[in-house]
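sanity check this chain:
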Amino acid sequence: MNTQQLNRAFRNDEISAQELAASLQSLFDSREPEVLAFIPEAKRFERLQKEAEELVEKYPDINQRPALFGMTVGVKDIFHVKGFSTQAGSQLPTQALQGDEAASVVKLKDAGALILGKTVTTEFAYFTPGPTRNPHHPDHTPGGSSSGSAAAVGADLCDFAVGTQTIGSVIRPAAFCGVVGFKPTYERISRAGAIPLSPTFDHVGVFTHDVETATRVAS
């Protein structure tokens, strides 16, 4: 099953949290070593299984589950996420860049999304690239600066991903990786909790497999 099928099965109690985590790990292990979309994380899928179990406990009634229940999301590593360090593609000491969880991440969690992990960004969402490769043509660039987020969706590692755009950093990598990239109106999605490149130009955007999912996530 792909990530979208896994999400539907989990949402409808057709698979358990353990089965969800195991299947996601299988997909991850088959593609991530080549694509390198995510920041490495020890015990990623043990954490994910625990969080999925907690989500089921919180919403036992299928009919009462929120819009993004069990959907996995990759978060560009300029957003602060509780329990994760923020490096912004840099070599600065970890403690130098920490902050409160991004407002957009809080909303995604409240809507039932599961954080698959932090995705690779160019350094401070500007120019110097990370290791991420194009999921369809590994010798080609995935585009920047939201390279990891676009490639993660393009490789079907997660249901959707969050990125930012100052000039073209959502729509360009989306085009390069063959996914939907949505850059909304300025401040339509809060920038709070994301390390800025240009506060007057930065936009928070999303990457998805299709327009329907983009509509649901942006809502």
Remarks:
- The radius of gyration is 16 Å.
- The chain is about 35% helix and 10% strand.
